């Protein structure tokens, strides 16, 4: 009898222990399935990142909204791929290594401290708002997109009614005075190479020539050398620190282009920027920047934005070469060869 009671107690204890184990496992599974505060924070950051990308005033790619966010993201992910000591050699052997990885991390460190703005991977150092006159059709703002700093960051001061020209034909375009952002100083993703390699080379060679070759030379020759060297430095500044031609975001092509696309429905279509477009059209859709772009404009994967009349990305100048800095870049390239040949002649005594 005592033995049967003992067996029943052991069985009851075993059943209770199994129930406790099941409850503990269920609580563990529930805790694993429940999102943590960190997960919710990361999800909100991703939503904010996507919203900023889609509402950005400029045709830029998907990046962190600010350089401070970029720095936080890099540190949360273990810094950039170039800064992890244990994986440095392995990354060097990989063909897929991002050449601008270290520059982007350095931009995040420096620009977050000085409060620089961001457009793609380019750092905005100085900008201002100006009033410009434009046609009514140039204001490409859709309903619900008007918010500070994004698409619709344009304020209409007054509207000028259309007037008739000399032939008596009435001009249907309405002129508006619009408040727009103007970029004054901006650097590309490879600005460390511009500041720490290109400029030191120019200043070093110029100072060496000034100290060892210029003294004793005729005054006209000294003046010519000084003007050419100054223009070389100035053209490099205008290339590396000016807007290369970043496009504003256009969610719709121009009205004339809309009619052209409608008339070209029967034209053969080609795959451009992940969308089928009529081959005869002049505007293309860019999925990377969520914007329409002219045919001669391209999305630069280094700068992460669409550049008008994009030519290439020059690491020596630190930025992309496009419509607005092409003249300065060509002047810089020409002056590099002229000044280099002149310095060689002066240093060797041929002059």
Automatic annotation (TrEMBL):
Reactions listed under catalytic activity: L-cysteinyl-[protein] + hexadecanoyl-CoA = S-hexadecanoyl-L-cysteinyl-[protein] + CoA
Its signal peptide is none
Q: Topology relative to the membrane, per the entry?
A: Multi-pass membrane protein
Gene Ontology cellular component annotations, sorted alphabetically: membrane
Transmembrane intervals: 185-210, 222-241, 331-350
Query: What keywords is this UniProt entry annotated with?
Result: Acyltransferase, Membrane, Transferase, Transmembrane, Transmembrane helix
Compartments, record wording: Membrane
| Domain named Palmitoyltransferase DHHC: residues | 284-346
What Pfam families does the record tag this protein with?
DHHC
Q: Name one GO molecular function term.
A: protein-cysteine S-palmitoyltransferase activity
EC?
A: 2.3.1.225
Q: What class of enzyme is it?
A: transferase
Start-end of Polar residues biased regions? 1-19
- Where on the tree of life does the source sit, at the highest rank? Eukaryota
- Regions of biased composition (Basic and acidic residues) lie at 20-29
What does the record say about domains? The DHHC domain is required for palmitoyltransferase activity.
Per the record, the similarity remark reads: Belongs to the DHHC palmitoyltransferase family.
Question: Which protein, by its recorded name, is this?
Answer: Palmitoyltransferase
Q: Which organism is it from?
A: Cyclotella atomus
